[in-house]
Amino acid sequence: MEELYLDNAATTPCDPRVIEVMMPLFAEDFANPHSTTHAPGERAAKAVETARAGIAALIGADPREIIFTSGATEANNLAIKGAARYRARHGDGRKRIVTVATEHKCVLESVRDLASEGFDPVILPVDRNGRLNPDHLREAVSVPTALVSIMAANNETGVLHDLPVLSRIARDGGALLHSDLAQAAGKTALDVRALDLDLASVSAHKMYGPKGVGALFVRRRPRIRLEPLFSGGGQERGLRSGTLPAALIAGFGCAARIATRQGEADARHLAHLAEALCNSLHARQVAFSINAKDAPRLPGILSLRLPGVPPLALMEQVPELALSVGSACSSADLAPSYVLTAMGLSPEEAAESLRLSPGRFTTPASITRAADLIACAAQQVRGAGPAWNRSRSDARI
Ligand SMILES: *Cc1c(COP(=O)(O)O)cnc(C)c1O
Fold first, then answer.
1. Distance from residue 182's CA to the centre of ligand 1 (Å)
2. Is 329 considered catalytic here?
3. Is 203 near ligand 1, meaning CB less than 6 Å away?
4. What are the C-alpha distances in Å from 374 to residues 156, 205, 351?
């Protein structure tokens, strides 16, 4: 049974070119990049700095504005908690932290955690298409606000926020602006200067790089100050102590350079695959709707609702199809996706939704096969009727 991977929004495979760049840094060039008293250490340090420049170039930053972390989760925590704590410690009275209901859990929980430190978390709603109404942000920042955090692209639906407009509102309100770019970077053109961002998070494993490495963009002019999350040797300009994983970072840099060159072609490929998938499902008479259908979205993420077909029952029929229900981090608890319910879907509608995310290495032939498998499984699940669905999904819980 050949496996078919349609879960690139959860993580992408490493591009073979990325693996090639990483291998020597695990083997002969293993030295500590901070040990610059010897040649091997210098070589590792050079690999790190080359990567830093590649990542900076992808998002229009200066290399000195890139701080390496273990991933976007850590970068988001560092941005949000670091900026809030620095401001509070230096006598800034602004306590409000504003974000959006459909953000990744690591953003939402970072913002919520700050309540126990005297901050005032505000979580703004979205509309049926997963978009934030600019007026809601304007109203929120009319109260003095320390920080606004709004993602560029959503990981469950692919919905793109109107960042240029939202950025201006945050700026006019005097707040710092952070954006989680984990899904958008490398998938759509992004420029931290054009967007006037102060802080931005990226992750290697969402752009065909390795897991376990990410970065935070920290603006230099004007300089954005952060309180570090951990104490230690003061690496990464004092913002992130710990020995840098030179091999992972070199892979990340390579992935970023490939994305800079190939991002547009990837996007065309993904748009083509998504269209082919929808057309094939229609041709096979599968009833479905696209969540956030009318919003601008990333081409590689399709959140589909198949009425009467619980995704778990479908996945039981086609175990060779790797897709996801909600997002990877929350699919263990089987609760309907909070992202979809925030968009106004009922818990039942949200529970009938699944996410298909093809990637750079997905072929048109595998999309046709996925459509065949889904059509066949949906027919069996629907044919078996609601009683079967209920007892089978109960059994799974
Ligand atoms: C994957 C993802 C994260 C978490 O990134 P890690 O590098 O796995 O910690 C954060 N935000 C978004 C939008 C993501 O898609």
1. 5
2. yes
3. yes
4. 19, 27, 17
Average pLDDT over residues 289-318: 95
Binned at pLDDT 50, 70 and 90, residue 394 comes out as: very low
The Cα–Cα gap between 130 and 294 comes to: 10
CA dist 74 and 77 (Å) reads: 5
Q: How far apart are CA 380 and CA 317, in angstroms?
A: 8
**Which of the residues 14, 278, 329, 376 is marked catalytic?**
329
Ligand 1 pocket mutation, candidates 102, 203, 329, criterion most atoms within 8 A of CB: 203
CB-CB contact of 7 with 328 (8 Å): yes
- The token pair at 205 is 């494993």
Tell me how long the chain is: 397
Whether 187 lines ligand 1, by a CB cut-off of 6 Å, is no
* Distance, CA of 65 to CA of 346 (rounded, Å): 42
Structure-derived torsion over alpha carbons of residues 274, 278, 280, 286, reported in degrees to the nearest 10: 150
Atom of ligand 1 nearest to the CA of 75: 9
Q: 72 CB less than 6 Å from ligand 1?
A: yes
Q: How far is CA 184 from CA 107, 155, 180, 195, 310, in A?
A: 16, 9, 8, 13, 29
**Domains present along the chain, CATH in parentheses:** 4-10+263-395 (3.90.1150.10), 16-258 (3.40.640.10)
Over residues 72-76, the mean pLDDT reads: 98
Is residue 253 in contact with ligand 1, taking CB distance under 6 Å?
no
Residue 249 exposed, middle or buried by CB count within 10 Å (0-12, 13-18, 19+)? buried
Cα dist from 34 to 37, 41, 95, 231, 245, whole Å: 9, 7, 37, 17, 11
Which residue lies with its CA nearest to atom 5 of ligand 1?
72
Q: Residue 4 has what DSSP assignment?
A: E
Confidence of residue 393 (pLDDT cuts 50, 70, 90): very low
- d(CA 383, ligand 1 centre) in Å: 37
User: What's the 51 CA to ligand 1 centre distance in angstroms?
Assistant: 20
355 lines ligand 1 (CB under 6 A): no
